[in-house]
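Render Thioredoxin-like domain-containing protein in 3D.
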Amino acid sequence: MYGKNTMTNYYKNLLLLFTIIVTLSSCGNRNNYEAYFGGEITSPKSDHIYFCRDNKVIDTITLDENNRFFIKFDSLTPGMYSFKHEPYYQYVYFDKNDSLMVNIDTRHFDESIVFSGKGNEKNNFMMELYLVNEKDRNSCFSVFDYDFDKFTKCIDSTYQKRIAYYEEEKSRLEWSSGFDFYVKARLDFNYFSKKEYYPYAHALKTGKKINDLIPNDYYDYRDEIEFNNPKLTNYTPFVRYFTAMLNNMAISKHEPYNIPEDTLEENITKLNLADSIFINEDVKNQVLNTLAFNYLLEDKNIVNHEAFLECFNELSTDDDDSNEIVRIGQAVDELSEGNKLPEIELVDSYDNPIDINNGINEKTVIFFWTSCSKSRLKVIDKKIDLLKQQYGEIDFIAINVDEDEEWKKTMKEYYLENACHLRASNFKALKDKWAFTKINRTIVLNPDGTIKKGFANLMDSNFSRHLR
C-alpha cells in the first residue's frame, strides 16, 4: 500500500536501536510526553531541518556528516507538526509518546517519504492521501470542462471512494480524534475546493456561465466548516480551500464569472469578504496575511500596492513589525525608482562580503536563481546572450538563494559566463529589505546604482524595454 525505500545498513541499525528504546520505554509507566524524531536525507539542500508547529520553528535539527538527524523531546504536546528542509516541507502528526523515523530523498521529496516507528501507520496513510490528492489536483483541471451534472457525478464518486478507504483505515488503525480531525479535513477540503473552483473555472475555460444552473443547496457544506478554528488556520488544505472560496465569492460579486482573476478590485473584495467571514481576530489576521501575500506575489501587484495595502491595513489588527505584509509594504517604498538598493548580506564564491551599491558603473540587471530550478538557468543563459548582443554595456548579477554548499556545488555544473555570481547569505534580509517573494524577480539599476525598475522579470518577452 505504501511506497518502499531501500535503507542503508546504518539506517536499519538506527531504526532497530530506536525500536528498542521505544519498547523499553513502553515497559514503564509513561505518563510523560516524551517523543523522538529522526531520519536520513538523501541529497540534502542544507545541513539542517526545521521542526515547526503552526508555521513557527520550535527546533532546528542539524544533520550529521552522514545526513542523518535525531532528536528527543522531553515533552511534546500531541498534535500536527511540520518539518521543513527548505524549500520543501511536509506534515507529521504526533500522538503521546510517538517515536518516528523518516527517510527522505530531496530529488523526489514527497514521493520518497516513508515513516517508521511508533505512529508510523497513520502518518504513512496521511502521506498516501496527500499524494493521491496532489495527483488529483494536478490532473483534474479537465473536469471543469464538464457540464454541471457530469462534474458533480465525477467528483462525488471520487470523494465517496476516498471516504470509504478512510473509514476502513480509521477502523483498522483506531487513530486518535486529534489525528482524525486533520486527515478528515484533508479529504473534505480537497473535495470542497473543487466545488468552489468549478463555477469560475468552467466559465474561464468554456466561456459558459453556469451560475444559474447551480442548485440552491450547492454551497450548504460551507455552513459546517469551522472557519474560526485556529487549528485550521495554517493547514494547507484549508488555506487552499478558503483561497478558492474567496476567489469564487469575489468573482461572483462582480459580473459573475466574467472578469479576469487577480484584479485590484476583486482582491479588495476578497479582503472585505474575509473580514465578514472570519470572526476570531488571530484567524482573520492570518487569512488576511495569506490573501495579501498571494496578491503581492505578482510584481505588477506589488508596484500598484497602495490601494490594496490601504484596505489591508484598515482590516488587519496585526501591526507588528514582524508581520510579513507590513514588511513588504515598507520594503516596496524603499525600492522606489531613483533610490539605492537597501544593503543586504551578499558574498562572492570566495565568501568575501560584497556591497551591491559599490562598483556599479553600467546599467545592471540583477536576477535570482536556485538549484531547485536548474533548467531555468539554461534559458536565462540564452536570454543573457541575446541581451548582450543588443546591449553590450549591460552587466548581469546572478544572486543565488541556496545554502553555500549547494550553491557552489551547482555552479560547477551550471555556471553562467556572462554574469557575476553572488549569494544571498541572509535570506530573511533579502525577503524583508528587497521584498523578495518569488524566484523570477529581476531588478534593473541605472549606471549610477540607483533603481530603474525594482520589479521586473528577465524572462518577460518585453523585458528589454527596461534597458532602453
